[in-house]
Every structure is written in structure tokens, then in C-alpha cells.
Specification:
This protein is α/β, with parallel strands linked by helices. The protein has two domains: 1-32; 41-228, Oxidized Rhodanese, domain 1 (3-Layer(aba) Sandwich), CATH 3.40.250. It has helices spanning 2-32, 48-52, 146-153, 168-179; strands at residues 73-77, 98-100, 104-105, 131-133, 139-141, 159-164, 187-192, 201-203, 205-208, 211-214. The longest helix is centred in the N-terminal third of the chain and has 31 residues, at 2-32.
């Protein structure tokens, strides 16, 4: 009888040690990922010229680091790898020179026609797009898969953090998504990578052997293969 009691006591002790290990592990994980539970402020457009682009007052280039890595969010950089627009004339880079860690690239000019760029920049891409603007100023799909692609990359059940070079493409993307029924309170225009000085900078633009090169292999880039899509009959 005493032997059975002793064995039971040993098993109980092992069980306590096992459960304690699980709890300690969870606490360590929570501490390492504390940014996942940082409360998000409601989107609020800032003032001045940045406000005209729709950049957020509270979640932007200066604060984005503490909102990275959230399980309830997606992070999208809306630039092209090489934009036809001459962004060097406004202090930017036509190439995607770098990005904030965790952001994935899906190019806005492939989703909708872009307009309203600074005159000095010139035109951006003017080829095929997932959506077009009809005579009433509404966005309509050019392909049967257009809306499914949009929902996949910008899931409605997630918070969506948008970025680009200066904030313009990100603002256009938010306006576009909201016009199609996305919740504007779950979308943040975090501004432009050109103004980011945080610790999560992934540098793509490099100088090697006296030449400027771009390490695009670092970029999580989502291409849109228009040839594989089914065109909508617009007649």
C-alpha cells in the first residue's frame, strides 16, 4: 500500500513539473511577442500634406515597429519593384530600395489605374489591372478572379497595415478597399518607407564593386499573372 502511495506521489510531482514547464514557456513566448497584444488606436488621419495622402496620425513610420508581427494583421507594401514614375525628382526612389520587415509587396498599379501623382513624377504603369473605373467613377473587375485575389491579399477579418514609398499608393489602396466594402477602421496607411528610421529596415538597394544593385530576392513579392486570369466580358 505504501509502495503504491509513493509511486502516486512521484507521478503527481512529474505532472506538476510538466504543467509548470508549459506555463513558463507560455510566459516566455508572450513576453517575446508582447507587440502582438499592443492595443491598436482607431485609425485617424494626420494633418497637413501627409493628411492629404491619408497617412495615419498614430500608426506611421515612427511607430510601426511596435505594431509588427501581429497574428491578427497583414502587412502590405504597395510599390512596384521598378516604377516607371520618376520618383527621384521628389527625393524618392523609383526602385523598391528597401522595406520594413514583415511587409509583403503587392503592387497597387497592377490592381487599379493610378492617377493624381505629382506632375513632375510623370506616369506610372498603365498596363493591365485587376479593376477599372467605369463611367460612373466606380471600380469594376476586369477579371472573374479579381475580387478573390483582393480578398486573399487583403483579408477582411484582419487588420491591414499599408505602406509605400511616400504614402500615396497606401492612401489610394485604403480608399479603394473602403469603396468596395472593407472596414476603414481596420486599415492603416502607415506612410512611406522613405521616411522610416526604425530597427526593422531591410535594405534592398546596395553598392557593390562601385555599382548600385537591388537585392530583390529579399522581397516577399506577389506577382499577378494576368495571362492566367479570365477576362470579364464588358459588352
Amino acid at each position: 500500500m505504501k509502495k503504491m502511495w509513493f509511486i502516486g506521489l512521484i507521478l503527481f510531482c512529474f505532472l506538476l513539473i510538466f504543467l509548470s514547464g508549459i506555463l513558463i514557456g507560455k510566459n516566455i513566448y508572450s513576453n517575446k511577442n508582447s507587440n502582438m497584444i499592443v492595443e491598436l488606436p482607431k485609425p485617424e488621419i494626420t494633418g497637413g500634406e501627409r493628411g492629404q495622402l491619408g497617412i495615419d496620425k498614430n500608426v506611421n513610420e515612427e511607430t510601426i515597429d511596435k505594431y509588427l508581427g501581429r497574428y491578427d494583421s497583414v502587412y502590405r507594401d504597395m510599390r512596384m519593384l521598378k516604377d516607371p514614375g520618376n520618383y527621384e525628382l521628389i527625393g524618392g526612389d523609383s526602385y523598391l530600395s528597401g522595406f520594413v520587415k514583415g511587409f509583403e509587396v503587392i503592387s497597387l498599379p497592377y490592381i487599379v489605374p493610378v492617377s493624381g501623382l505629382p506632375e513632375v513624377v510623370g506616369n506610372t504603369y498603365i498596363g493591365k489591372t485587376l479593376f477599372r473605373i467605369d463611367a460612373d467613377g466606380k471600380y469594376v473587375p476586369n477579371y472573374e478572379e479579381s475580387l478573390d485575389i483582393l480578398k486573399f491579399y487583403f483579408p477582411k477579418d484582419k487588420y491591414i497595415f499599408l505602406m509605400c514609398g511616400g504614402g500615396g499608393y497606401a492612401g489610394m489602396t485604403k480608399s479603394f478597399l473602403v469603396s468596395l466594402g472593407w472596414d476603414e477602421d481596420k486599415i492603416y496607411n502607415t506612410g512611406g518607407y522613405w521616411f522610416y528610421n526604425g530597427k526593422n529596415n531591410i535594405q534592398v538597394k546596395q553598392n557593390r564593386n562601385g555599382k548600385t544593385v537591388y537585392d530583390f530576392w529579399k522581397v516577399t513579392y506577389h506577382d499577378i499573372d494576368f495571362d492566367s486570369l479570365t477576362e470579364v466580358n464588358n459588352e
